[in-house]
Design goal:
By secondary structure, this protein is an alpha+beta fold. The protein has one domain. The chain contains 2 helices and 4 strands, in the order ββαββα. A hairpin with a 4-residue loop joins strand 3 and strand 4. The chain is globular and about 30 Å long. The protein binds iron/sulfur cluster. Iron/sulfur cluster binds next to helix 1 and strand 4.
Length: about 80
C-alpha cells in the first residue's frame, strides 16, 4: 500500500484514483483530519485524498503525518 521514499515519507502505491483503498486507509487512521473543502477530491467523506496531511506527488501522494519508524502505519493502514 505504501512505498518509503528517500526522505522517510510514505507514498501511497494506489496512485490518485484508488478511491476504495484511500478510504479504507483513512477510516483506520487515527491521524485523519479534513483538509480545506476545496482541497477535498474524494466523494467518500473520510479518505486519504481528503486529508489535511496528504501532499500530492507526480503520481500519487505522500502522507506527511506518518513517518518512518512510526508503528501506526503498519498497524492501522
Ligand atoms: S494521516 Fe496519512 S494515512 Fe492517515 S488519513 Fe491522512 S494521508 Fe491517510
Amino acid at each position: 500500500m505504501w512505498r518509503l521514499n528517500t526522505r522517510g515519507n510514505y507514498e501511497f502505491l494506489g496512485g490518485k484514483e484508488d478511491w476504495d483503498a484511500a478510504a479504507r486507509v483513512a477510516e483506520q487512521c487515527s491521524y485523519y483530519a479534513d483538509d480545506d473543502e476545496d482541497e477535498m477530491t474524494a466523494e467518500e467523506p473520510v479518505s486519504c485524498y481528503n486529508c489535511l496531511y496528504r501532499r500530492w506527488t507526480t503520481n500519487s501522494f505522500i502522507c506527511q503525518k506518518v513517518k518512518q519508524g512510526d508503528g501506526r502505519l503498519s498497524k492501522k493502514c
